[in-house]
Design brief:
It is a single chain. The chain is an alpha/beta fold. The chain has 16 helices and 14 strands. The strands form three sheets. Strands 3-9-8-7-6-4-5 form a seven-stranded mixed beta sheet, with helices on both faces. A five-stranded mixed beta sheet has the order 10-11-14-13-12. The protein has a two-stranded antiparallel sheet with strand order 1-2.
């Protein structure tokens, strides 16, 4: 394949993000295709024995096996790295494959991990259940409390793991403070940036070491495939992540990588449009929810306790927010009355989706753990899509009225 200017880092790093999203990491075959090629191959052939020996020894560039490299996957990795401002990226089969690999590749028995208590349910399962099985100590803290991060550090602390904004409570972490604190103590920061994507927030700019994604969300953005990604320095990816990835195999499929490549072309357009619509819908909902005794959790609104911090860290505050209507029965009544917005536990989609976290994404955590992180029985999480905002407001207005709000 011919490596076009899209694969020349000296050229692509000069481009602005909108250009990188469309052209970064593009290879072309001798056919000169305009759309990135899809390579459905598990293995590769070689011209001679020395060539394959050199590739396996790391002395020559080239593909060896699709558990390690694939041209379509390599294009996706290059493009995500450019958008993130990272030296490199390794794509994963799912978002949770990315989170699991980012932690297990660097933690061993006797190490300590500090994690945010407000997190996606499966991420909390990793911290609360999986890591301790391997003798890795864990602590969960209020990630919005800077003092709590410093107080949680032990001599054996190796990793800080958190997401901002957090799922589903929309807690905001002070990226600069936490990353500076970690670096001062030799601790690696792993940031789950799925709620924002590199179109809205780039944690590496604040000193984060590793940024992990569910690319299923905003990067694909249309509910088509599962995908994940890990961005970091080439040294960390090569020396820390790759031995784990090579031997455990959480690699993304070429087809899914190709779909996400197509999603990245419109990522910024979608993310910013959906962010604006989310603010507009939040402004409509807030007085109604507050009058009914509920609460709003929207970092794009001035009422959010970390609104100023969110605005300073993010280009826009994203398509996702949450609000509490008091009880599970009332939350279910709102969901059941929706006609346009779908009931679904996905996020980042171009369609508006809403769910009840306590009975879906965080159902397996148990009542006490949900209460600890603020996932109440009346909490609803919404992903605002690309529909006309007037239609979304009309649908929410009718649903709230039907639920007695």
């Amino acid at each position: 394949m011919k490596k076009t200017t899209g694969m020349n880092r000296a050229v692509t790093q000069k481009w602005r993000p909108a250009t990188q999203a469309v052209r970064g990491g593009t290879w072309r075959s001798e056919h000169g295709e305009t759309s990135e090629a899809l390579f459905l191959s598990s293995g590769y052939t070689y011209d001679d024995a020395q060539t394959v020996a050199d590739r396996f020894a790391g002395d020559a560039e080239g593909m060896t096996y699709s558990r390690l490299q694939n041209p379509t996957v390599a294009m996706l990795e290059e493009r995500i790295a450019l958008l993130e401002g990272a030296e490199g990226c390794r794509a994963q089969a799912t978002g949770m494959a990315a989170m699991t690999a980012a932690l297990l590749c660097q933690l061993s028995a006797g190490d300590h991990c500090v994690a945010a208590r407000a997190a996606f349910g499966s991420c909390r399962w990793l911290v609360d259940n999986l890591l301790p099985r391997f003798g890795i100590e864990t602590s969960v803290i209020d990630s919005a409390d800077n003092v709590a991060w410093e107080a949680a550090i032990r001599p054996n602390t190796k990793v800080f793991f958190f997401e901002t904004p957090a799922n589903p409570t929309l807690d905001i972490v002070d990226l600069q403070f936490v990353c500076d604190l970690a670096r001062a103590h030799g601790i690696t920061t792993v940031v789950d940036n799925a709620f924002a994507s590199p179109a809205l927030q780039r944690p590496l700019e604040f000193g984060a070491d590793v940024v992990a994604y569910s690319a299923t969300k905003l990067m694909d953005g249309q509910g088509r495939v599962l995908a994940g990604a890990i961005c970091a320095s080439e040294e960390w990816l090569t020396e820390v992540l790759m031995p784990f990835q090579r031997n455990t195999g959480p690699i993304i499929s070429p087809f899914n990588a190709w779909v996400v490549l197509k999603g990245l072309e419109t990522l910024s357009l979608r993310a910013h449009h959906q962010s604006r619509s989310a603010v507009a819908l939040g402004e409509f909902l807030e007085p109604r929810v507050l009058r009914a005794g509920g609460t709003m959790r929207h970092p794009g609104l001035p009422s959010h306790p970390a609104h100023a911090l969110a605005i300073s860290q993010m280009d826009a505050t994203g398509p996702i927010f949450a609000f509490d209507v008091g009880t599970r029965a009332r939350a279910f009544a709102v969901l059941d009355a929706l006609e346009l917005i779908d009931i679904s536990n996905n996020i980042g989609d171009s369609k508006s989706l809403m769910c009840h976290p306590a009975s879906t994404t965080h159902a397996n955590m148990g009542e006490d753990a949900r209460a600890e992180m603020g996932v109440s029985e009346g909490l609803l999480r919404i992903n605002v899509g690309l529909e006309d905002i007037a239609d979304l407001i009309q649908d929410m207005d009718a649903a709230l009225s039907a639920a007695g709000l």
